[in-house]
Amino acid sequence: MNKKTLLSLLSTLLFASLSLNTLASAETKKIRALLIVDVQKDFCEGGALAVPGAEDIISTINTLIEGKMRHYDVIIASQDWHPPHHGSFASSHHVDPFVVGTLGGRPQTMWPDHCMQNSKGAEFHAGLHINEKTGSKLSYTTTNSKGVRIHVQRKGSNPEYDSYSAFKDDGGKETGLMKYLMAQGVTDLDVCGLATDYCVGASALDAKTMNPTLTVRFLEYASRGISLEAIAKKIEEMQEKGILIVKE
Ligand code: VGL
Ligand code: ZN
């Protein structure tokens, strides 16, 4: 073997080992995010659209926020944030709540008025460890009393479309949350909150569909839903789409 061949062989080996190293570190460096969906007064006991058992998950979610069960690098809380007379309100169509009508050309369950922008019902549950801000911004970052940074993403502000998903509305308009996750380099996303059969399921499914390389997990123990049948169906759908179900 001449000197030139030897040199080229050595440099190939060096290059290969360097790329293997970067590959390995890229694989092991996980950035974990927690998405807490719609844990707002209107979806809790006494609220306009109370989800059974919502009270049971508050302290669990606080434990998650404080990193006592698992460390998260990024924490996001979504907030349903409707203007008055939103198209998903039964009152806007003069029908009874829970009637299925149409909105934006698709079937839409008409809900009681809920989570109206800047109303009491739109606030996070009083026991949740998030310092929320007033104002009309659709997203902002805040710090809670324990010094944990939380990014708040509001959704459902277009009266023409509902937005169960925290990532995009039924008209296909993105909220910007996926961009935020990507900018933070998130590789693993855990989703929990209210309600499993609506906003939690829709958000987890959109996260996986919009970015199939994300590892998405649904935290069943930190979520509650409206109807048992719809919850079971939604969990099955999540599983089929490659979302991991964490029972406890
Ligand atoms: C939700 C119904 C209407 C939810 C929001 O957060 O699951 N459900 N708007
Ligand atoms: Zn809503």
How would you sum up this structure, described in words?
- The chain is an alpha/beta fold.
- It has one domain: Isochorismatase-like (Rossmann fold, 3-Layer(aba) Sandwich).
- Strands 5-6-2-1-7-8-9 form a seven-stranded mixed beta sheet, with helices on both faces.
- The mean pLDDT is 93.
- It is globular, with a radius of gyration of 21 Å.
- β7, α5 and β8 form a beta-alpha-beta unit.
- Helix content is 29%, strand content 21%.
- Bound molecules: pyrazine-2-carboxylic acid and zinc ion (ZN).
- The site of zinc ion has 7 residues, from loops.
- Give the averaged pLDDT, no decimals: 93
Here the CATH topology equals Rossmann fold
H/I helix tally: 6
Shape field: globular
Largest sheet: spatial strand order: 5-6-2-1-7-8-9
**Small molecules (ligands, ions, cofactors) in the structure:** pyrazine-2-carboxylic acid, zinc ion
- Biggest β-sheet description: 7 strands, mixed
**Overall tally of structural domains:** 1
Overview in brief:
With 248 residues, the chain is of the alpha/beta class.
Q: What key phrases describe this protein's structure?
A:
about 250 residues; alpha/beta; Rossmann fold; seven-stranded mixed β-sheet; two-stranded antiparallel ribbon; about 20% strand; binds zinc ion
Write the layout of secondary structure elements.
Elements: H1 3-28, E1 32-37, H2 58-65, E2 74-80, H3 90-93, E3 100-103, E4 106-109, E5 139-143, E6 149-155, H4 177-183, E7 188-194, H5 196-210, E8 215-224, H6 228-240, E9 244-246
Parallel strand pairs: 1-2, 1-7, 2-6, 7-8, 8-9
Antiparallel strand pairs: 3-4, 5-6
Helix pairs in contact: 5-6
The structure holds pyrazine-2-carboxylic acid (VGL) and zinc ion.
